[in-house]
Structures are given as C-alpha cells and as structure tokens.
Amino acid sequence: MGEATLNIVELGEYVKRKRQEDKLSLRQVATNINVSASTLSRIENGIGTPDSATLARLAAWLGIPLERLMRGSLMESVEGDSSESFSEPVIYFPTESTPNIVEAHLRADRNLKPDTAKALAELFRVAYFQFANRPTDRNE
Q1: Contact 129, 93 (CB under 8 A)
Q2: Of the candidates 6, 15, 67, 88, which lies 20 to 30 Å from 52 by C-alpha distance?
Q3: How many CB atoms lie within 10 A of CB 51?
Q4: CATH homologous superfamily for 1-75?
Q5: Which value, to the nearest 10 degrees, does the dihedral of the CA atoms of residues 99, 126, 61, 26 take?
Q6: Domain ranges of the chain
Q7: pTM summary value
Q8: Does residue 47 contact residue 18 with C-beta atoms inside 8 Å?
Q9: What is the largest CA-CA distance in the chain?
C-alpha cells in the first residue's frame, strides 16, 4: 500500500458536486456534518487541510470509506503508463453509490486519459440520476 495522500482540490470538487446534487446549501451541509460553514467553504475551494475528525465526517456524509479519502483515490488520476500505478486493485464498499463505483473503475482504466475518465464518469453520473428514479413497469 502507498502512503496516505489527500488531494484537497479533488476532495473539494467532490464535496461541492454532492452538495449541489443533493440541492443543499453550504450551511445546511455544514450543520449536518457538524463543521463550520467557513471550514466547509475552504474545503470546497481546495484551501487548507481538514483535520481527521472533519475528514471522518465528510467521508460519512459522502458515503465513501475514509480509506479512499486518505489514499488519494477519491478521484484517482492515472498519470503516465507505469505498471506501478496500477498495482493496487480498485476497492469499493457496499455503502458506495453506483456512480462512485463506476467512476473508480473508469479512473483506474489504463486505456483512458484522466480527463477522459472524468468526462465519462460525469456522463454516467448524469444519466444514472436521470434514469435511476424512474418507476419501471415490471411487466415489460
């Protein structure tokens, strides 16, 4: 296993995207996870490093394991083509959403550039949420 790395900018993007998807204000999320609105704002803007308690609360709210945050694999970027960067398996947990799991797999795909994987993940996320809540006719 590699050493713990935390990409603050990507964490902030991820938090902001989930907050917007859930249609919550910054203050609502801050209250829900028991951190100050200014702390959450700094995280969303990629400024400063949150303490371990805040990271744990964020991980719980995001529905992802704290380990994924600490490994820097929240939004893994695939740099270069070294086999070392692909030596660890993609790990997901039952509490993670389907879009997060698909995103992890896309970012781990060595055939995709990081920006392509990110774009595909966003396309999947939009399509998933558009169709996931539709009632289906089981008789079809």
Answers
A1: no
A2: 88
A3: 11
A4: lambda repressor-like DNA-binding domains (1.10.260.40)
A5: 160
A6: 1-75, 78-133
A7: 0.56
A8: no
A9: 53
